[in-house]
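stage 2 :: seqdesign
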């Protein structure tokens, strides 16, 4: 424990992903690369300083490239090969050197100016490949600048020792790059339990505490940190006594997980004989094994956007086909619900060059984007339809606000199906087509939608924020993110009742589905399927096995007439703690 200092601090945040992790802190914070333009006297010395920064950047990139090849494969390493080529480009380097000589400005200014000209030149080209080179030059400029300024660069995918990540926030692509072998947990300044980084953390079984407000201010590189993803606490340089206690807590949690693992092959049946399907939410084919190990009976949400992220261009039809086929085959005929591309909000694709929006969560995203950018959308639908013969595929459209949107999306699907059949390509005849219910207008009009869709899946992460007019990423209004609010429960009941009248099934794929307080209410409301992070399934099964559906129906009758979230929570506690 020699790395401990005399200072010990405790940060409180939101428990975003269960488990306890202990390791050194690794600050994933964008470095300050600001500099002043200066006139220099010793030109030769400045040229040598620039050349030294180039050599150091090359060495760093070669190490990263080799690590990427070993850990992540040749495709990831190719990015760094491209960056190394830029660092060896005589046209770029000579122009920077000449700029230092002729204008007598410091290397930072010359680098920024000349590289900026190249970036602008490439960005203005019509060729997509050449446009992408602009991003590569921008990354290389940042790397060389960091060496000139003596500032350390960060790269989450290249971490090769056990660490706790500390960041202001993590983008979904950052989180998806984390190597589970070395990243033991993470903590962030901002975010909530339903932020996408938290969702991915749960799917990867990485303990996480988010929304601490000050983690990046309080924690330094190398500090020893404990992340308690059960209570939402972060200890910085804790005492030996606290470390000992948390090692015991960690062991107790592992013992609890061992008890849950005995339920892997059990059916999820209440004490009075009612069956509920427990499914997993996944982001990539790699998540399938974890879903199966945790006893999932289906895939209730396959988030296809992760096929598009952390890339420099759109995935091909063949690449998508293989990813969908792998999951369908892996579930051996059990249900796989695939959500079509849901980009927007906090999930961006830089290569699409979409305009910045004042409120991206309410903007041009998900099905709205797909219906306008139909080339991209049709490629995905073709890949899905081709893969449909490999298993039990159900297709789900996100962010549907009107019946017209659903009809348009389904019409495009039917057009692509006809094209494939005319090309002699087999397509399943039993694909169910449903929608995410995440917009209040859709929930209110559920009786009309239920006549046309094959199923509903309630996306509570967005449904709650839109109903309560509270950004789920904003800690200052996080108190309004209320899954148990009677208004939310009434909307959910409206959707379930409308579907059941038309003999359609209803699932839930929002984070509420795996919530210990919500599960008794959802059971009483009559939900047919609960889809959640794989790591929540066995805990949920253990809970449902101890509940009576009839009793939970009585609980729901009372809850629907209550006025506040706290009243509902108290009623749940009274019934479940008997």
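stage 2 :: out
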């Amino acid at each position: 424990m020699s790395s401990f200092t005399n200072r010990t601090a405790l940060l409180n945040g939101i428990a975003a992903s269960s488990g306890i992790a202990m390791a050194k802190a690794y600050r994933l914070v964008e470095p300050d690369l600001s500099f002043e333009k200066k006139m220099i006297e010793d030109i030769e010395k400045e040229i040598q300083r620039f050349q030294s920064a180039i050599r150091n950047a090359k060495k760093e990139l070669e190490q990263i490239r080799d690590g990427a090849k070993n850990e992540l494969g040749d495709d990831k390493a190719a990015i760094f090969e491209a960056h190394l080529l830029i660092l060896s480009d005589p046209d770029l380097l000579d122009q920077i050197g000449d700029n230092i000589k002729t204008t007598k400005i410091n290397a930072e200014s010359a680098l920024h100016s000349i590289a900026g000209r190249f970036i602008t030149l490439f960005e203005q080209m019509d060729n997509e490949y050449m446009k992408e080179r602009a991003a590569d030059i921008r990354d290389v400029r940042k790397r060389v600048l960091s060496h000139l300024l003596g500032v350390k660069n960060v790269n989450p995918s290249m971490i090769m020792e056990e660490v706790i990540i500390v960041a202001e926030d993590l983008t979904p692509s950052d989180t998806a790059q984390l190597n589970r072998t070395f990243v033991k947990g993470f903590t962030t300044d901002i975010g909530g339990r339903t932020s996408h980084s938290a969702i991915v953390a749960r799917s990867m079984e990485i303990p996480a505490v988010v929304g601490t407000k000050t983690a990046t201010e309080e924690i330094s590189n190398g500090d020893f940190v404990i992340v308690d993803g059960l209570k939402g606490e972060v200890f910085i340089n804790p005492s030996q006594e606290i470390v000992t206690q948390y090692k015991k807590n960690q062991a107790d949690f592992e013992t609890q997980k061992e008890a849950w693992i005995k339920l892997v092959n059990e059916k999820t049946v209440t004490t009075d004989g009612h069956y509920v399907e427990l499914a997993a939410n996944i982001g990539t084919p790699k998540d399938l094994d974890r879903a199966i190990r945790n006893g999932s009976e289906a895939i209730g949400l396959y988030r296809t956007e992760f096929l598009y992220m952390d890339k420099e261009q759109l995935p091909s039809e063949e690449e998508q086909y293989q990813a969908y086929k792998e999951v369908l085959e892996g579930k051996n005929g059990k249900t796989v619900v695939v959500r079509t591309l849901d980009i927007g909000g906090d999930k961006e694709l830089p290569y699409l060059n979409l305009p910045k929006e004042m409120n991206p969560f309410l903007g041009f995203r998900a099905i709205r984007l797909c219906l306008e950018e139909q080339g991209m959308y049709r490629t995905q639908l073709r890949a899905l339809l081709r893969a449909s013969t490999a298993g039990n595929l159900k297709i789900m459209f996100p962010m549907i606000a009107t019946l017209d949107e659903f009809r348009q999306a389904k019409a495009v699907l039917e057009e692509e199906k006809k094209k494939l059949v005319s090309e002699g390509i087999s397509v399943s005849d039993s694909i169910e087509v449903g929608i995410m219910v995440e917009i209040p207008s859709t929930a209110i009009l559920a009786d009309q939608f239920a006549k046309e869709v094959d199923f509903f899946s309630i996306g509570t992460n967005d449904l709650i924020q839109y109903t309560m007019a509270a950004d789920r990423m904003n800690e200052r209004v996080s108190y309004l993110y209320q899954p148990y609010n009677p208004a939310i429960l009434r909307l959910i009941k409206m959707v379930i009742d409308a579907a059941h009248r038309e003999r359609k099934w209803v699932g839930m794929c929002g984070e509420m589905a795996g919530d210990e307080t919500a599960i008794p209410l959802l059971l009483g409301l009559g939900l047919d399927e609960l889809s959640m992070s794989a790591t929540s399934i066995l805990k949920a099964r253990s809970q449902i096995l101890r509940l009576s559906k009839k009793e939970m129906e009585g609980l729901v009758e009372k809850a629907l007439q209550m006025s506040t979230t706290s009243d509902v929570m108290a009623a749940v506690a009274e019934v479940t703690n008997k």
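stage 3 :: structure notes
- The longest helix spans residues 43-72.
- Residues 1-6 have pLDDT under 50 and may be disordered.
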